[in-house]
Write a structure and sequence with these properties.
By secondary structure, this protein is mostly helical. The protein is built from 13 helices and two strands; from the N terminus they run ααααααβαβαααααα. The protein is elongated, with a radius of gyration of 22 Å.
């Protein structure tokens, strides 16, 4: 069977239309003609499942629809190797990747973030935040420390981060693969990982290999819908902003994403 797309017609299109209608994605008339209404229904279905929303239906997707199976994503985890990731991280010791990649892949799998786009998002985020492929603590910079001031004093009274004054700025500085920052985020994500207030009382735990990978996965999962929308529009800048809030590391993020896009097939 060929890919079904706008302009296709026949019994397979009719079958597709029936199934879409059953699932609540109205394709209009069930007439076996793949028109604009059918394409819109397919795109809506694909977006609901976090798939590439191109409006085209591959044989595997149609087969899964007809069988009533879950086609949320096709896992690319088995395709990801240290060699491939090393090419995405050309300045990183392969030994670091070998040591930490299993934690990252396991955490992504646990959160069902296994399709190509979101996996590339995760790896490229690591490249942008910590090119060493190791969880790290935020460095002192002019953005977090005033001239001659205490380390991270510019974070001390950041209400958007939930900080309440010294020593919150330094205590809850960025850590891990995503640079988790601020009292409010240490509390929120500690609870999401089942650590309750342990991450608040021991913020350095965010740099643990397993915890850092779990934090990355949960953080991306919470923003998945918006990230997928940006990536489907090929808008890497917006995807990066959804994690970082700005464009820091965008060049590294983009380079890693494009390399992985070519190699993970």
């Amino acid at each position: 069977m060929e890919v079904l797309k706008q302009g296709s017609s026949g019994s397979e299109v009719r079958q597709l239309q029936k199934k879409l209608k059953e699932l609540g994605f109205n394709p209009g008339r069930v007439d076996g003609v793949f028109g604009p209404a059918t394409k819109a229904a397919v795109i809506a279905f694909q977006k609901s499942k976090g798939m590439v929303a191109d409006g085209n239906v591959e044989p595997k997707m149609l087969s899964a629809l007809n069988q009533g199976t879950n086609i949320n994503t096709v896992s690319v985890i088995p395709l990801v190797t240290v060699d491939i990731v090393s090419k995405m991280f050309p300045f990183t010791p392969p030994s670091n990747i070998k040591a930490n990649l299993p934690y990252v892949l396991s955490a992504l799998e646990n959160e069902e973030l296994t399709d190509k786009n979101i996996l590339l998002m995760a790896l490229s985020t690591i490249r942008a935040e910590t090119e060493s492929f190791e969880p790290i603590s935020e460095f002192i910079s002019r953005y977090n420390t005033s001239p001659g001031g205490r380390p991270f004093d510019l974070y001390d009274y950041r209400r958007d981060l939930g900080n309440m004054g010294p020593p919150d700025g330094e205590r809850y500085r960025g850590r891990g693969f995503i640079q988790l920052t601020g009292r409010i985020n240490y509390k929120r994500y500690g609870e999401e990982l089942g650590l309750d207030d342990q991450l608040l009382s021991e913020p350095e735990r965010a740099n643990g290999d397993e915890a850092a990978a779990q934090l990355l996965a949960v953080f991306l999962k919470n923003k998945k819908a918006r990230i997928i929308d940006a990536l489907q529009d090929n808008d890497l800048k917006t995807a990066r902003q959804l994690v970082n809030g700005g464009s820091h590391g965008l060049d590294r993020f983009t380079e890693a994403f494009r390399i992985g896009e070519r190699l993970i097939v």
